[in-house]
Amino acid sequence: MAKLDRATPLAGTGLERAGLCVAENTGLGLIRLQAFHRRPGAVEELTARLGIEPPGPGSLRSERDRQWFWSAPGEWLIAIPAGTEDAVLGALRAQLDGLFVVLSAITDSQVALDITGEAVREVLARGSTVDFHPASFGAGNCVLTRFAGVPVMLASPGRGEQILLFADRSLARYLLDWFEAASIDC
Amino acid sequence: MKRTAQRLPHARVDPGKTLRFRFDGRTYEGVAGDSLASALLANGVGVVGRSFKLHRPRGVFGCGKEEANALVQLESGGYSEPNARATLVPLYEGLEARGQNAWPNVRSDVFGALGVFKRLLPASFYYKTFMWPNWQRWEGLVRRLAGLGIAPTSADPQKYLKQNVHADVVVVGAGRSGLEAALATSRDPACRVLLIDEQEEPGGGLLASPAAADRSWLEEALREVAARDNITLLCRTTVNGYYDNNVLAALERLSNHHGPAAGGAVRERFWRIFAGRVVLATGAIERPLVFPNNDRPGIMLASAVREYCHRYGLTLGERIVFYTNNDSAWRTALELVDAGVPVVAIIDLRPAVESELRQRAREAGIALHLGTVVTDTRGRSGLRRLVLHRLAGPGDALEAPAGTLDCDVLAMSGGWTPTVHLYSQSGGLLAYRDSDACFVPERAHQAVTAVGRANGEFAAPLNLQPQWLTPGVSAEHQWVDFQYDVTASDIQLAARENFVSVEHVKRYTTNGMSVDQGKTSNVNGLGILALATGRPIPEVGTTRFRPPYHPTSLGAYAGIELGALYTPFQQLPAHAAHVAAGALFEDYGAWQRPACYPRPGEEEEAAMAREARAVRSAVGLLDYSPLGKLEVRGPDAREFLNRMYLNNIRTLEVGAARYGLMLNEAGIVIDDGVVVCLARDHFLLHTTSGGATTIHQHLEEWLQCEWTDLEVIVGNATTQWATLMLSGPKARAVLAQLDGDIDVSREAFGHMQYREGRLLGQPCRILRASFTGEVSFEISVPANCGLSLWEALMQAGEPHGIVPFGIETLMLLRTEKGYPHVGADTDGNTMPQDLGWGGAVANKPDDFVGRRSLSQPVGSDPGRFQFTGLELLEADARTVSGAHILTADGESTAGYVTSAFHSPNLNRTVALGIVADARDRQGEEVTVFYAGQRQRARLIKPGVYDPAGEALNG
Amino acid sequence: MIRIECPWCGPRSEAEFTCGGQSHIVRPADPAAVSDREWAQYLYQRDNPKGLHYERWRHTFGCRQWFNVARDTVTHEIRAVYRMTDLKPAPGGEGV
Fold first, then answer.
1. Pick the CATH number of B288-414 from 3.30.70.2190, 3.50.50.60, 3.30.70.1050, 3.20.20.190
2. Which of B162, B569, B715 has the CB atom closest to A34's CB atom?
3. What share of chain B is helix, strand, coil (3-state, %, to 5)?
4. Residues of chain B falling short of pLDDT 70
5. What's the superkingdom here (chain A) (predicted)?
6. Cα distance between residue B465 and residue B289, in whole Å
7. CATH of the structural domain B156-285+415-465+543-565, one choice from 3.50.50.60, 3.40.605.10, 3.10.50.40, 2.60.120.1130
8. B668-682 per-position pLDDT tens digit
């Protein structure tokens, strides 16, 4: 063998029902940016260098081919096209040179699911106590919550009723099994 | 009970659609829209159950959730449901039900004879009787005779779901008041309204009304509700509990009305409702009157007789008599006459009643008996006759006999109890209203209001005169709680025995503790208690209202969290390979990991032995991915880690790796692992497998709460990397075959060293640490390549005899070497000095978390359990983790065996333990005790295989 | 169930959080200099008020941050939420 093969956590398997579809999103690379937010001015410095204002709690923001998701004070998940992690890390490191900021590629540590269907909001409300009504969770919102008992990020990028879910890769099979059992009437 | 040949017109059932069902072995017919109870009544079935203690024949008493007698065993096998109230079971084709607590059936129960022994079986008789020689001799017999339904013994095959929902307004009850509230609040289109009703269809009390105006109002209201997008109507849903922060729990019956024929459809849905504000339109429940033998089949609540007439089209009897203390029963009686029901008399204990009602009753041909009480009833399997007496004055003794009255149905009304359970659960305070003798909502604690009869707003004045029990006659047979056979005499007995608190009386008499939770017995009970203890009712108070309001299937609480989904599970990156290799999986925390890889027909111990021999003689591969990998970075990272670890991190040089211990502030060992310094301000911490999240949280806690100025950022990279442990004398040879840029030769890559580079085209990190005692490479690649790396190593290792090995084998190997495992060989008291680390503490000048606790007196207590090896002295001896090491006098515990395996490499048992003063007692013999057996062992240095560690230099 | 307003994520259910017990416990600046008794008090002595309790909570399933809460132990009413680094609000003071 000359090179290692890459396999995403669900190896492309998913769930298809009349009212709900869960499919693995294998087209994203993920980068985590951590700034030391406890020092006054740190986040402002970061914003100035980046040239864009990263999203606040509960929000996501798209710029160019990157999507930023707020994941903790001073911390963001950045979704980019799969395979471009090295290039983007390099670019960001250059941009933020001198600042105390940690940039890591975390693509492999996450499973990304695209969830669609007319029963999406109802099924999500079976896993978490967050209010998924469109008025409370609409385009541009992202929440970190306890879903099916585990920590998960749920985002509404605004592509119709498609919801994006990020969770630790080790939970991929558990979450798919959960969706299958929880959508038995869909 | 009279059989109904033809339903009355205007009933809400569909007489054209017949449904067949079976009760107690006989087949009957009902119609669509019937409940099981109404169908039984339509067939003239008078006896539907037997009472709890005394097996008295009982008939249908109510019409809904207040039903106290008609408890049936519904269906069978996995669908069996005990104590189902027949009034709440919608009739479906093929329904099967049995009476309970009777043999051979409720009609002719042989245990009916027990009634004779009532005197011997008062409340809490089991504390006073059946004492000799001891209660246990009698317990089995008593339990077989007592009890109502039978618990199912088959698994429930039905499916349940759980659902969360948020709403701005939640209205509980879709009767008139509830519908009005829902329509009013939903005028604002942005307001999300959830309207919930427990019945099969909405309408509440309106469903029992004969008035055409009521029926058309209901139709119009429901049309309007359906038209509004912002109202969600949930029927067949009982709101069961009211919790903090306006959170409600409710149970929806999705397919119960189909019975077992529903097949795989979801049976019930448990709702968790987050409400902005709540409107309780839960109505009120009628109370029975308390008089001798008031429990016979045919004696029912007046409101039930009304509902069976107008909603189900049943007349029930040929001579219906009303017995009451308030005006509402009179209006019901007059309505029934208008519908053609033979009401022959009204008995009212009040001396005077409003003239208009009396006039209309006389015109309707109803005989009136005012100032009269019922003092006895006759008819064992069905009411036949009433015995009457005149009252001298309210609550006074009886004046004179007033003859008897033949009747087959007695409709009684003792007053109304607003349904305030949810209001009280929400923390709301109740007040007692003397005029209506009931508790009403007074002061809300959360955002909730009660409306309609739930708020004590009765359509017309009741003019009620309470009579909690019948004076001048024995209290012995005056029933208060029908379900649990509690009589007025039981409550009086409790008071005499000084159980005067209403909470004590409830539990001593069991009044209000059955399936109906006292919906018709609580207020009567506390009324009798008030009289017995000479206190006003407000002073007696009510028992505490607790959820659930209504029995809830256990399946609904579980939802889908069953079987494999009972708890979240985590899988390894190379999971598919482990499955293909026949791994025996076990749960290690939340991780599913191979314990070992038994070959077909191989037992677990044999597999472990084979794997352990292979690792020491050739090479083994283990999926070590849960090994914690925490990246700690920042200008203050070095200082921070120096404070978190026992070891000196200040002196750790770039590129170096050091094994370290972490303590909590109480000085207890919480983790061990190898710390690698990647750069001056960048460290990679390896934590105990599966402990990554805990230690990550531990580090964050100190950074966020205590040392908030330290500039440190922690990242958890545990699952970003798949980590495989390649271990054994041939490990290097195998690894060297793979294409990469890391020099793995013996000279270039020593023990306890770390390298980064590329392997088979991917970034790679390798740590040469060893938990097996053989040359080991802990190889990490990005997790998505983990499966591929596993396959590559297995392929490269084949000519060398590589085997996959699991966690149990790893534990066996490290026990042979005497390496402690935090959490197995340490407990909640283990301090570093117990593991032999006292010297390391002394060598570190700086403070660290837990340091100060080590010098507390407990840290140097004689008798501390210390880590040691154990050598079993008898030939072929075995022991297990958890066996006790005894004190010299053999009387108590002086330690435990913490790890024990049969070693295939040494051909004997290897064991480790924590034993009192072990470090000073090396060489001593001790006694090991387990499951009644004793054996001798010696305290030795841990690690009997290759004690000099020569293999690591290979 | 308690609903807690995380300073970053907003109101969430209790199940998303971990309670860290009494807050504002001061670690002795020089542990080596304190007596055994003082150290034991720092480790184990905690208030148990019937009423207002100042405690720490972590939003474990959300932003993973620690913050402080002033909660009534009888009614569960949360009277104030403030950051780890903020000063303890006085009882009856603003928002408490």
1. 3.50.50.60
2. B715
3. 25, 30, 40
4. 145-146, 394-396
5. Bacteria
6. 11
7. 3.50.50.60
8. 999 999 999 999 999
Using CB atoms, list chains with 3+ pairs below 8 Å to chain A. B, C
In angstroms, rounded to a whole number, what is the distance separating the alpha carbons of residues B804 and B793? 10
Q: What is the tens place of the pLDDT at every residue in B422-474? A: 999 999 999 999 999 999 999 999 999 999 999 999 999 999 999 999 999 99
Asked if A174's CB is within 8 angstroms of B565's CB, the reply is yes
Instruction: Quickly name the fold that domain B813-830+862-940 has.
Output: Elongation Factor Tu (Ef-tu); domain 3 (2.40.30)
Tokens coding B763: 């970034």
pLDDT of residue B953: 85
Q: Which of C31, C43, C64 has the CB atom closest to B851's CB atom?
A: C31
Is C62 in contact with A145 (Cβ distance < 8 A)? yes
Q: What is the pLDDT of residue B53?
A: 84
pLDDT of residue B115: 73
Which one, of B182, B175, B348, lies nearest residue B278 by Cα?
A: B182
CA distance B425 to B431: 15
Q: At what angle do helices B807-817 and B604-617 cross, to 10 degrees?
A: 60
- pLDDT tens-digit series, residues A23-39: 999 999 999 999 999 99
Asked if A129 has any chain C CB less than 8 Å from its own CB, the reply is yes
If you search the block for the tokens 């839960």, which residue do you land on? B282
Which chain A residues are within 8 Å of C3, Cβ to Cβ?
none
Please state the rounded mean pLDDT for residues C69-94: 88
| Residue A146 exposed, middle or buried by CB count within 10 Å (0-12, 13-18, 19+) | buried
Mutation site, B160, B163, B166, interface A, largest A CB count within 10 A = B166
Helices B355-363 and B327-338, axial angle in degrees (round to 10)? 30
CA distance B661 to B835: 10
Binary contact (A126, B163; C-beta < 8 A): yes
Put simply, whether B708 touches C (Cβ < 8 Å) is yes
The nearest CA of chain C is from the CA of B242 a distance in Å of: 10
ipTM for the complex? 0.97
Three-state SS for B41? helix
Helix, strand, coil shares of chain A, percent, nearest 5, are 25, 35, 40
Which of B243, B702, B705, B854 best probes binding to C when mutated, by most C CB atoms within 10 angstroms? B705
CATH topology of domain B467-535: Arc Repressor Mutant, subunit A (1.10.10)
The DSSP element (H or E) to which B307 belongs, if any, is helix B302-310
> Taking a C-beta distance cutoff of 8 angstroms, is the pair C9, A144 a contact?
yes
Helix (H/G/I), strand (E/B), else coil: B504: helix
Instruction: Identify the burial level of B820 via C-beta atoms within 10 angstroms of its C-beta, where 0-12 means exposed, 13-18 middle and 19 or more buried.
Output: buried
DSSP-derived 3-state class of residue C38:
helix
Whether B578 and B572 have beta carbons less than 8 Å apart is answered as yes
CA distance C21 to C54: 8
Task: Establish if B709 touches chain C: CB-CB under 8 angstroms.
Answer: no
What does the DSSP 8-state code read for residue B202? Answer: S
Bridge partners (DSSP) of residue B348 are B324, B370
What is the structure's pLDDT at B396?
66
- Cβ distance A57 to C63 less than 8 Å, yes or no, reads yes
Q: Which of B830, B631, B789 is nearest to B717 (CA)?
A: B631
> Given a cut of 60, is residue A116 above it in pLDDT?
yes
Give me the pLDDT at residue B133, please: 85
Residue-range domains of chain A with CATH: 17-25+109-182 (3.30.1360.120), 28-108 (3.30.70.1400)
Nearest by Cα to A151 from A139, A168, A169, A173: A168
Cβ-Cβ contacts under 8 Å, A71 against chain C = 63
